[in-house]
Structure formats: C-alpha cells, structure tokens
Amino acid sequence: MGMKRVVVVGGGPAGAATAKALADKGCDVQLFEAYPHPDKIHKNAPKAYVIALGQRGQDGLQRSTGIDPLQIPNSIVSTHMVRHPKNNVRKHDKTPSLIIPRKVLAAQVLDAAKAAGVQINFEYRLMDIKFDQQIAIFEGHGGVVTKHVPYDLLVGADGSKSKVRSLLNQNVNEFKVMRTEEDSMEYQVAVIPPPFPFSGMPETSVHAWNDKKYNSICLAFPLANNGGLLFAIVYPEGKLSEFKEKHRIDGTGYDDPLFHLMPDLTDVVKEEFVKQLEAGEPANGGTCVWCNSLGSPKHGVALVGDSGHGMWPSLGQGANCALESAAVFSETVGDIVAGKVTLAGKSWGEVVVEEFNKRRHADALAAVDLTYGGIGARKSRGRNNAPLSYKAQVVGMMLLNKLTLGIVPKPALIRLMMGQPVPYSTARKWNFIYEKLVCLGAVLMITVALVLYKF
Ligand SMILES: Cc1cc2nc3c(=O)[nH]c(=O)nc-3n(C[C@H](O)[C@H](O)[C@H](O)COP(=O)(O)OP(=O)(O)OC[C@H]3O[C@@H](n4cnc5c(N)ncnc54)[C@H](O)[C@@H]3O)c2cc1C
C-alpha cells in the first residue's frame, strides 16, 4: 500500500484523535482547523467549559491515540455525583469521571498528533469539496489564502454544524441527513474560586440540582490545581435573558437559580456568580442529527464525532461518543492496513468508509436517539417530565436488580447514565423493549381489572 493521503477537517477531540491514530498507522495526514488555536475553538461555547469523560470516552481516547487520559494535566478524577434535591438532602452516587477542560483535551491530542507527524493547519476553514476529483478546498487566515488539497480519504470531524455533512447532503445522492433537532435550552457558566462552598462534601464531587419549575438543571464541576468550581446553569431558551432583565430592574433576577435552587451557596459565592452571569452571554445547547450513513464510501468521505452523530447534551455523551467513534475508525483502518479486510477491487478510501459505517452506524444512531428521547432529555431539556411508562420501567428494573442481588442487571439506560460503556444500541434496544413490556403489562392489568369489576 502506498502512503495514503488523509485530510481531517476539524481539530476537536474526534478530529485530533483520528488524525493521530491514522498517522500512527502510516498515513500522510493533514488536519485543518478553522480557529487559530485550541483556546479559541467553539465560538459559542464559553472558554472555560469542561467535559466529563466517563469510562467510554477514556477508553476511546486510549484506544485511538494511546494517550492515558489519567495523565492529562489540568484534569481531575471526580469521585462522586452529589444530587441536591429541593429539601436539600444530598444524595451521593459513585460515578467517577474525568473532568477535563475542552481546550486542554484538544490541545493535548493535537500536540500528540503533531508529534506523530500530522501536519496541522490552524485558521483554515473548509469551503467546498470537489467530490468527483477528491479535492478539498480551504480558505486560510480569513480568506487571504486558498488551498486545494487532494485526498484518498477525507474525515469530516467538524462538529455538529458540520460543513462536510452539509456538502455531502447537497451533492451526494446516496447520503441524506434524515432529521435534525435543535435543543431548546441555553446555558451560562461561572468559575467560582476556592474556598469550596459545600461543607462535608468531597471536594472532587460533581454537583447537580434539578429545577422542576423550569425542567432545567444546574451543575458544578471541580477544577484541577485548586481552580475552584465551574458552575453551569441550563435553562429553557429565553429564560436567562429574562433573569438578566429582571436583575437590572429590581435586582431579583437570579433568585430562582441562586437562592431557591442552590440555597447552600454563600452570599459571597452568589455575588461572584451574578457578576459573571451579568458579564457573559448565554450560549445555545446542542443539535441532534440523524444521517442515513456515516459518510459516503463511493467518495471516500467519512463523518467522525458530532459531525455524523450530533446529540443533545442531555446524557453527557457527546465527547464520549465522539472519542469512541475515533477509536472504531482507527481500528477499522488498522484492520485494513493489516490486511484483515480485503479491498476486493474497491479503492482504499471506499473500503475504509464502508467498513466504518458497518461497525458504527447503528450505535451512532442509537446514541442520538437516547439523548433525544431518554429520561435525561425529557427531564432536563425543557420538555415534559419522563412519562410514567419510563419511570415505571426503570423503577421496576431497579427493584428486580435489588431483589436478585444484582443477577438481573440494572437497566441499560441507567448503566449508560452512570458512565458505563454499555453499547448504545443495547441501551436503546432494551429501553424500547422495557417500554413496550410496561405498556403491555399496563394494558393487561387494566383489562383484568375491568373483567373482574364486571363479573
Ligand atoms: C458547554 C458544553 C459542555 C459539554 N459537556 C460535555 C460532557 O460533559 N461530556 C461529554 O461527553 N460531552 C460534552 N459536551 C459535548 C462535547 O463537547 C462534544 O460532543 C465534542 O466536543 C464533540 O467533538 P468533535 O471533535 O466531534 O466536535 P467539536 O468539538 O465540535 O470540534 C469540531 C472542530 O471542527 C472545527 N470546524 C468546524 N467547522 C470547520 C470548518 N468548516 N473547517 C475547519 N474546521 C472546522 C471547529 O472549530 C472545532 O474545533 C459538551 C459541549 C458543550 C458545548
């Protein structure tokens, strides 16, 4: 096999990890990132934002790049999830995850990619793709330069608003975006410096408050190196602007999140919080994207990460799923390079995309479904609360799990939410079956009750 030319569009977690993995496998890789530096990535996201990487994301990073996630600087292993219900009784779960600033994760993997021989081009934005000639066209430094780059394989890792995906959708018949759904939430963050405001709590815990009034959620993540806590408040679109307006009129605008929902906070913390909320602007939530394929085999174009399976942040799966996709992609290329998958007269790029799609598409679709319709989404994304059938199925399975001393596993959806790497398609399938069984059970019980009542 001659040296294959790979173009990666996007320097986020998925793009950087894929680029490093493919360079390690002997490909000639060029990566193009629209922003000038990892610090500047994500126009809409606050600079400080952190990612909670569960076991799935950590495994994905290690499998694709060989990087040990626990060695990444400025990251912290959170030991507990502390939920603060309304009466302020706190509940601890042990759901350890790695809290990493997004810019640190991207910068670390980009550095490793560079060391592996990837040519990294910052401030280059993809403008067009000539699919028939396999040439990608980039504009550099705000339009000062244009580059035409030929490729054997193009990896679109340019996030949930992917240009690669939209070009495929416009120009390639066999590729279709089946559906997109914008999240109806917005969020703002504030970094509160030490001292740690919750006495008696582990300082490495993640905190969560559920605001039933607005179906919204507030979170606090620990920051490494005694960096304090990163708070994120998530509300239905328009609510944060309402809070701001009210704050300017009578100073009570932030009472709902800061005084009613999080009464534990001290006055000093609240004051700092309000200052930062007033100085910043709300950012949008995510987009769910369902595609009929993770790229176009015929044109040697693959979609890896949010570009192929954008999802709402309802279950905290985005980066976890993106890194797992990067791992599946790199293992697919590894198998082809090792001759475990034959080309059978097709081009190398075609076989890579075809095989990747075979291995990953069902799981990717299931992941999007879960974040769109799962309990987390219904509860915390401005939709109605989870319907009774969802609650019943989960409670029923949890009871069964307790009664059988763990022989019957916890529901797959719950295991997924606890950060375990249960396959998305398994969680989706069981979620669906539970739902049907519970509905069937309810219909049977009502029928029996009616029959008994009549006779
Ligand atoms: C506030 C917030 C909190 C989150 N928390 C979590 C969490 O706790 N856990 C979790 O798993 N996920 C979380 N996510 C989701 C996670 O950040 C994303 O799912 C993840 O970053 C996806 O990685 P990606 O590489 O596919 O895409 P992205 O990270 O979006 O990277 C895409 C890259 O492509 C570049 N790009 C875009 N267009 C072009 C173009 N035309 N040309 C060149 N480059 C381009 C962008 O600049 C960007 O750098 C969170 C997201 C947000 C916004």
TrEMBL record:
Keywords for this protein: FAD, Flavoprotein, Membrane, Monooxygenase, NADP, Oxidoreductase, Transmembrane, Transmembrane helix
InterPro entries: FAD-bd, FAD/NAD-bd_sf
Domain FAD-binding: 5-178
Required co-factors: FAD
UniProt keyword NADP, yes or no: yes
Transmembrane segments: 432-453
PANTHER family assigned: KYNURENINE 3-MONOOXYGENASE (PTHR46028)
Name of this chain's protein: FAD-binding domain-containing protein
Species name: Attheya septentrionalis
High-level lineage: Eukaryota, Sar, Stramenopiles, Ochrophyta, Bacillariophyta
